């Protein structure tokens, strides 16, 4: 292997790659120019189990991010409220931020200043950002875009297992599985190298069962596709459990020995008769029966969920429905089996463990737990009573901006909510009206363009740190190229602001030193990193948390002996079908569901700037069934208007029988009038506070 070994800048699979400045070799590499003009070559690593020599189109073209034409290399500032953004010095930018924060906090209290983070930030940045909010700003108002991603799976896993950690074991365990039920995930487009593990499973005789309202690229590779109506997963999961019980397929011995709360779930499941479930979901009984028999008949099996089953106003209950099924079949804690979540963002797993969530402190500790506060405050060298309490969740925070009781300023790192938040036009308006909006990014995203101050940052290959992938494996991201003159790392920005604010404690700009503090802060917590060092990650190719000491091997497969709940048992949670928060009616007769495409990533701020990806996926579209298109008089490729109660979007029609007749689909990666999140609703899950991205009612016109 030549070059610097590191990982892809995008999704949670964190495929291994090397970056170097050499010439392409044998056509098996992709090159681009770094910001300094030297060519940078990407090659996949075959020593990383997640991708084993594979990359998707996004990974192959990742080096082009280093030379995007509109790369930010100087701070920008508006001299007056309505003035355009203009270049300024770092001192001018930082002074403006600190004076604005000081004025607003003095007038309105520390909660007048909010912080918004991202699931793509390294562990070190996520940790430092949470500390910065609580110690330097003393604000409770911090949350991050991961709330929009997998927070329902996190909440459901926490209440079932006492812990939330992506997959139940190394991703390579999937190859030996006899059956995988994947609900609401489309890895064939979102993380294609993951499909190799499922292909290995199928080559070994295992079966892939996909639950999705669309016949996605993943569903086309499945042995069985259950195509429920959008928002009906709880009914489907309860119906599958009903059939498992009716056919005597539940693992009663496991249920008695390792779980609690099953009686209430059995009672609920008994009421989900097959004909009732067929009526609610539209999934035929034979398909449901086949799914249950495949799962129950396998020695090893997995139940996995992703955004399609999580981004709902009842997303936590939806995931609990699938966890109940997995528990009834005795999967969690059985070697090579279990329940898992396909986390989406690059550091979606680590990003939720170190304190950038409104309700958490590092180590996945609850912020209202006195013992947790005392431990973390001691590491930070502050009085625990000085730490703020829980703040608002992401959408609640964004929708409170500028209200009488809400924040007047926001510092935003690694996120683009103008595109990715629900009811995006309203979020855009609130962000634009703030007294002070500060955005740290390496490109002028749609959110950065609204800011009063823009801080240009280093990006993935220009800095070091750690990422925790969807397996719960902590990985090294290594600096491979120099950052352009004029930019700073997020850690340098946080340290500079903390220094100007007179914050107590250490604010290192060295990622390894920050990781050392993170280890101490996480010690004894659920997500215990205290035994993980940069040297170990290097030597062992990554370390799985929890890892409570340097002589601990890490925990690739948690739950084998006990669950980290007070009594060591996993907990069933009875859940009932409620339907979507906004149902269809005569005025808005179609369900809209939103999602992703292969060549774009999240809000598109990065991937829309990569030529090959922009060529492959140039703009927004609306998928609709041919029968619906005919009824509406819509031709394939024609621009159509999609309206919900919150707004209107325009995009090209893509006519396909891969979608149900009652449902249309839009990817959410684009800005402008094709922005899918102009349409989405703001109903929030009562547990996870996840917005309902996956269902709302719309109408379409030509
Ligand atoms: Fe990058 Fe994810 Fe593609 Fe792998 S699957 S190359 S991590 S975007």
TrEMBL record:
InterPro entries linked: Asp_de-COase-like_dom_sf, MoPterin_dinucl-bd_dom, Mopterin_OxRdtase, Mopterin_OxRdtase_4Fe-4S_dom, Prok_molybdopt-oxidoreductase
Q: Which cofactor does it need?
A: [4Fe-4S] cluster; Mo-bis(molybdopterin guanine dinucleotide)
For this record, the Gene Ontology CC terms, alphabetical, are: membrane
Q: Which CDD domains does this one have?
A: MopB_CT_Fdh-Nap-like
Which residue ranges does the record assign to the 4Fe-4S Mo/W bis-MGD-type domain? 1-70
Annotated GO MF terms: 4 iron, 4 sulfur cluster binding; metal ion binding; molybdopterin cofactor binding; NADH dehydrogenase activity
Q: Which SUPFAM superfamilies match?
A: ADC-like (SSF50692), Formate dehydrogenase/DMSO reductase, domains 1-3 (SSF53706)
Keyword Metal-binding carried by entry: yes
Name it: Molybdopterin oxidoreductase family protein
User: Which keywords does UniProt give here?
Assistant: 4Fe-4S, Iron, Iron-sulfur, Metal-binding, Molybdenum, Oxidoreductase
Q: Which GO terms describe its biological process?
A: respiratory electron transport chain
